[in-house]
C-alpha cells in the first residue's frame, strides 16, 4: 500500500506508513502567484493501491485533498483517511436556504473507502460515495491517561453529545464518568449548567471531540474549579484551537491539555496512527 500524506497530515501519514511498513510517497505543495494551490505527487504509484491521509482543517486543505484525489485517478484503488473533517459540524439545515455543508464536502470525495476519526456526527458517513467508516480515538486517549498520575480522577463530558467519548476513555481506566449540560449561545459562547458531580479535591479530565474556540472547555474548566476540583485537564480528539483558544483554557485554570494528532499541534501527544493502520490493514 502507498501512503500519500497531505500537507495537513504529514506527521500522521508518516506514522501510519511506519506502523504498516508501507511506502510513503512524497508530494510537493506550492501556491501560484494568484494564490491557487499547486499539488504534485513526486513518487511513482501508477496502478497501485493508494491511501491519501489529509485532514481538512481549512478550505485549502479540502482543495488539496481534491487535487490529490484527482492526481491518483489512475490508481487501482483509492482509500481516503480524513482524520479531522472540517465542516462536519454543519451537518443540518438550521435555517431555510442553508446548505448541509458536511454533505456537500462528503459528496465531492470519490474513493473506494473513506475513514474518518470521531467525526462530529456519524450520519455524515452516509453522504460519501464510498464505503465510509468512522474510527474511534478515545481508547488511545484512555491509554495515555492511564499512564498519568491523578488524584481520585473522574472523566467528564461537557455535554451529552460527548458522553460516549467519556464512557470509552473512562472504561479503560475503570474510573467514574459523567456529563454536563451545555447551551450554545453563539459560535463562541456557551453556558454550562452546574450539576451535582462530586469533584471536590479530585482531578477531572474533561473530554470532547473538538476544541475549537475553546469556549466550551473554558466554561467547563472554570465551573469545575469553582466546585473545588483539584486539577482540571482538557482532552480532545481534534485540537482545532482557533484564534486564542489555548489562552482561554489556561486563563480558566487548565492543568494540562491532551489531544491527538488528527491535527498536528504541540498538544498532540496521543497518536491515532495505530487505529488508522489497523483499519487500513483490515480492508
Ligand atoms: C460541539 O457539539 C462539539 O462537541 C464541541 O463541544 C464544540 O465543537 C467545541 O467548540 P468550542 O471549542 O468552539 O466551544
Walkthrough of the structure:
It is a single chain. The chain has 283 residues and is α/β, with parallel strands linked by helices. The chain has 8 helices and 16 strands. It has a 6-stranded parallel sheet, sandwiched between helices. It has a 6-stranded parallel sheet with strand order 10-9-13-14-15-16, with helices on both faces. A two-stranded antiparallel ribbon has the order 3-4. Strand 11 (181-184) and strand 12 form a beta hairpin. Bound molecules: ribose-5-phosphate (R5P). Ribose-5-phosphate is lined by residues 89, 158, 161-162, 190, 208-216.
Give the class-level CATH name of the largest domain. Answer: Alpha Beta
Small ligands present: ribose-5-phosphate
Mean pLDDT: 95
Instruction: Report the sheet-strand fraction.
Output: 25-35%
Low-confidence stretches: none
**Major sheet attributes:** 6 strands, parallel
Strand elements, count: 16
Query: How are the strands of the biggest sheet laid out side by side?
Result: 2-1-5-6-7-8
What is the H/E order? EHEEEEHEHEEHEHEEEEHEHEEH
Q: Kindly name the structural category.
A: alpha/beta
Q: What Rg is obtained from the alpha carbons, in whole angstroms?
A: 20 Å
CATH fold-type name of the largest domain: Rossmann fold
Total domain units = 2
Gross geometry: globular
The span between the termini is 11 Å
Question: Considering DSSP H and I runs of 4 or more, what fraction of the residues is helical?
Answer: 25-40%
Number of helices: 8
CATH architecture grouping of the largest domain? 3-Layer(aba) Sandwich
Amino acid at each position: 500500500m502507498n501512503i500519500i500524506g497531505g500537507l495537513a497530515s504529514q506527521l500522521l501519514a508518516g506514522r501510519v506508513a511506519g506502523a504498516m511498513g508501507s511506502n510513503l510517497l512524497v508530494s510537493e505543495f506550492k501556491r501560484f502567484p494568484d494564490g491557487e494551490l499547486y499539488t504534485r505527487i513526486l513518487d511513482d504509484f501508477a496502478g497501485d493501491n493508494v491511501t491519501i491521509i489529509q485532514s481538512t482543517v481549512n478550505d485549502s486543505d479540502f482543495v488539496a485533498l481534491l487535487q490529490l484525489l484527482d492526481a491518483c485517478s489512475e490508481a487501482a484503488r483509492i482509500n481516503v483517511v480524513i482524520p479531522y473533517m472540517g465542516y462536519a459540524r454543519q451537518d443540518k439545515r438550521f435555517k431555510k436556504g442553508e446548505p448541509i455543508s458536511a454533505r456537500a464536502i462528503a459528496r465531492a470525495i470519490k474513493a473506494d473507502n473513506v475513514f474518518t476519526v470521531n467525526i462530529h456526527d456519524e450520519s455524515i458517513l452516509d453522504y460519501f460515495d464510498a464505503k465510509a467508516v468512522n474510527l474511534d480515538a478515545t481508547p488511545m486517549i484512555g491509554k495515555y491517561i492511564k499512564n498519568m498520575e491523578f488524584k481520585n480522577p473522574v472523566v467528564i463530558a461537557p455535554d451529552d453529545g460527548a458522553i460516549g467519548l467519556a464512557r470509552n476513555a473512562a472504561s479503560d481506566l475503570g474510573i467514574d464518568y459523567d456529563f454536563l449540560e451545555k447551551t450554545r449561545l453563539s459560535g463562541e459562547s456557551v453556558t454550562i449548567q452546574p450539576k451535582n458531580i462530586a469533584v471536590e479535591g479530585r482531578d477531572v479530565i474533561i473530554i470532547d471531540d473538538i476544541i475549537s474556540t475553546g469556549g466550551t472547555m473554558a466554561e467547563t474548566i472554570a465551573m469545575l474549579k469553582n466546585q473545588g476540583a483539584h486539577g482540571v485537564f482538557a482532552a480532545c480528539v481534534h485540537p482545532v484551537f482557533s484564534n486564542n483558544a489555548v489562552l482561554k483554557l489556561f486563563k480558566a485554570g487548565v492543568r494540562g491539555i491532551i489531544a491527538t494528532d488528527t491535527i498536528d499541534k504541540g498538544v498532540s501527544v496521543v497518536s491515532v496512527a495505530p487505529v488508522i493502520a489497523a483499519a487500513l490493514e483490515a480492508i
